[in-house]
Amino acid sequence: GENVEQHPSTLSVQEGDSAVIKCTYSDSASNYFPWYKQELGKRPQLIIDIRSNVGEKKDQRIAVTLNKTAKHFSLHITETQPEDSAVYFCAASPSGGYQKVTFGTGTKLQVIP
Amino acid sequence: DGGITQSPKYLFRKEGQNVTLSCEQNLNHDAMYWYRQDPGQGLRLIYYSQIVNDFQKGDIAEGYSVSREKKESFPLTVTSAQKNPTAFYLCASSIPPNGFSDYGYTFGSGTRLTVV
User: Fold this and answer.
1) How far is A111 from chain B (nearest CA, A)?
2) What average pLDDT does range A74-93 have in this prediction?
3) For chain B, how far is it from start to end, CA to CA, in angstroms?
């Protein structure tokens, strides 16, 4: 089955700096890569996703890049703000009739004001 | 207001008891999932269901059971066979893809189960 590794497990940045979270996956059949943000005590919410036919996707201050050859993908947050502080999960999923998603172990991001 | 509702928010279980966690959605999603969240271990899949009256084991199904009698409901029972049930449990639903989903998962707000 799929195995998703995520690094780092914790990340502290100064407000205004950039943050990068990296994930690798093992199953070459995976072609959908969502990222979820979980604020303290709240449910995970989808913030951005990317598909294997795309190398990069941006949405305001967040971007995701994908390297299918190397089987890794990354989340980039620019101009970080205190409200970006949360746990971020990467995930991978194959296409097909069922979307079984395998999650990474999460990265706790702390943005220091 | 469409969404996915989990109850209760907090649940305490005595040793040897079975407890059932509720998950209800009004999003008209066919697929539903149960995940367990432990510190440092991310989200691990317990069970999933693609359609009514059908469900499959996930990666850590031992000690758990589910049912899917209605499209809207996917309750999880934590049985006494689950030796370490203290965790945060998340239910999710999704539109089943014909290839890809544009919406990812919608998660419930979770149930925190503690063994006392």
Assistant:
1) 20
2) 96
3) 35
Say which residue the tokens 């999933």 belong to.
B48
CA distance B8 to A64: 35
* Helices and strands, number each (H, E), in chain A: 0, 11
In terms of C-beta density within 10 A (0-12 exposed, 13-18 middle, 19 or more buried), how is residue A103 classed?
buried
What integer pLDDT is reported at residue A73 of this predicted model? 97
- The answer to whether the Cβ–Cβ distance between A98 and B97 falls below 8 Å is yes
The structure tokens listed for A36 are: 């979820």
pLDDT of B98 over the 60 cut = no
For A75-104, what is the mean pLDDT? 87
Model confidence pLDDT, tens digit, residues B28-38:
888 899 999 99
DSSP single-letter state for residue B70:
B
